[in-house]
Write a structure and sequence with these properties.
Elements: H1 9-12, E1 13-19, E2 22-27, E3 31-32, E4 41-44, H2 47-54, E5 58-59, H3 63-79
Antiparallel strand pairs: 1-2, 2-4, 3-5
The structure holds zinc ion (ZN).
């Protein structure tokens, strides 16, 4: 059973920026867009709307996320 607790934006966001398509948020490894399962990015017309969508972020354990998490853990270990 997945324990639900609201994550802070800081815990969820890897990157965010605005371009001609709108306001983008890329989720950190381990999270997916709950409104579009299997995707790890959010794009909305406004920052406000993107942050609304961000609240629907769900834990993700796809191969891509697991790979990125494993790589990050290896890097952290090497930095010590
Ligand atoms: Zn994933």
């Amino acid at each position: 059973m997945i324990r639900r607790r609201s994550k802070t934006n800081r815990e969820l966001i890897a990157e965010q920026y605005r371009d001609s398509d709108g306001f983008w948020i890329y989720l950190k490894p381990g999270y997916q867009n709950g409104f579009d399962p299997g995707t790890h990015g959010i794009v909305e017309d406004t920052k406000r709307a993107a942050y609304e969508t961000l609240r629907g972020a769900e834990p993700c354990d796809c191969a891509e996320c697991r790979e990125l998490i494993a790589r990050a853990a290896a890097q952290n270990g090497g930095a010590r």
